[in-house]
């Protein structure tokens, strides 16, 4: 069974109460539960880590090298600033999908650039909590394709 790290960055632990007009009313626990159930239905084991600390996110990526087949990452605000996360994604060599609840390109101009995007195989954003299910589906697709077709 393929194994995937679902990695969430800063402030995502506050979902459900943090600016619900922007991020929705669903909690991170509820989003992770639905994503986990969906992943299981596709034959994927999903393991979740959330941290507000950049180094902890990098450590989780490094540890994933030893057990994971792919990564789904919502780096939160680190999306726009963290060269270290970009480098860690490249270093571990696992297919990584960037995911966001909101459409970062329809928000403040400073959110329009993702420094992690060039290290990722794809990007899903703007569909609220459903973005996570789309990312799980995309990862299932990636993991079933021969490497030369990805």
Notable characteristics:
alpha/beta, Rossmann fold, 150 residues
Report on the structure:
Strand 3 (70-74), helix 4 and strand 4 (96-100) form a beta-alpha-beta unit. The protein has 5 helices and 5 strands. Helix 3 (54-64) runs parallel beside helix 4. Strands 2-1-3-4-5 form a 5-stranded parallel β-sheet, with helices on both faces. 36% of the residues lie in helices and 17% in strands. The protein has a single domain (3-145), classed as 3-Layer(aba) Sandwich (Rossmann fold), CATH 3.40.50.9100. It has 150 residues and is an alpha/beta fold. The chain has helices at residues 20-23, 28-41, 54-64, 83-92, 130-144, and strands spanning 3-8, 45-50, 70-74, 96-100, 122-125. It starts with a strand and ends in a 6-residue tail after the last helix. The model has no long low-confidence stretch (mean pLDDT 93).
Summarize the structure.
The chain is an alpha/beta fold and 150 residues long. The protein contains five helices and five strands. The protein has one domain: Dehydroquinase, class II (Rossmann fold), CATH 3.40.50.
Detail the topology: elements first, then pairings.
Elements: E1 3-8, H1 20-23, H2 28-41, E2 45-50, H3 54-64, E3 70-74, H4 83-92, E4 96-100, E5 122-125, H5 130-144
Parallel strand pairs: 1-2, 1-3, 3-4, 4-5
Q: Strand content of the residues, in percent?
A: 15-25%
Note the gap between the termini. 19 Å
Rounded mean pLDDT score: 93
Low-confidence blocks of residues:
none
Number of strands: 5
Tell me, what is the CATH class? Answer: Alpha Beta
- Following the backbone from N to C, one meets helices and strands in this order, namely EHHEHEHEEH
**Alpha-beta content class:** alpha/beta
Radius of gyration of CA atoms, rounded to a whole number: 14 Å
Describe the global form.
globular
Largest sheet: 5 strands, parallel
What share of the residues lie within helices? 25-40%
